[in-house]
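Appendix B, Record 12. Input sequence as logged:
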Amino acid sequence: MTERVQQELTGTGVHAAHVAINVRIGGGGPEGFPTATPDEIAPLYWDLHDLRDRSEAVFTA
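Logged structural output:
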């Protein structure tokens, strides 16, 4: 779906993207469950914004 939205936005200067986050953000989760800090996740968002080369990304620990 996001790819279709991105196609509709082509040429408008707007970039739509979806990020699936496959970790618990911050600490305090169940033992053994992967975690990440916002600072660890942020570069993925920046790359999507800066490169505009894809409409979906997945963050995993």
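The mean pLDDT is 90.
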